[in-house]
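Key result, reporting period 2: structure in, sequence out.
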């Protein structure tokens, strides 16, 4: 019994550490790839706040794939008249990391 409780604690701590690492990696990558020039976590800059993007796409099964494409190729019309430019400096793997992080914002 004591061993099971200890194992649950280890698993919970590991999950928390993994989430924290993803948060740091996502924010660091957003800064490194210049995403923060047009976006912020909590408020609109040129583009929408990341928390607003997360809210808009919450529960959509295809959200990650849709947003990865948008990060890499750009897009327009979803958040207003200002288009999001393509980001050729972002690899597909980096785009997935960024999008997962964006979708985790509250």
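The corresponding designed sequence is given below.
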């Amino acid at each position: 019994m004591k061993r099971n409780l200890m194992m649950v604690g280890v698993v919970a701590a590991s999950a928390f550490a993994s989430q924290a690492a993803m948060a740091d990696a996502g924010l660091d990558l957003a800064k490194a790839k210049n995403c923060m020039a047009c976006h912020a976590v909590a408020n609109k800059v040129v583009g929408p706040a990341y928390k607003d993007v997360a809210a808009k796409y919450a529960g959509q099964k295809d959200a990650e794939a849709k947003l990865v494409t948008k990060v890499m190729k750009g897009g327009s019309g979803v958040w207003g008249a200002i288009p999001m430019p393509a980001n050729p400096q972002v690899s597909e793997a980096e785009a997935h990391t960024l999008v997962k992080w964006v979708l985790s914002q509250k």
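The domain at 2-103 is CATH 1.10.760.10 (Cytochrome Bc1 Complex; Chain D, domain 2). The chain has one domain: 2-103. This case is discussed further under Risks and Mitigation.
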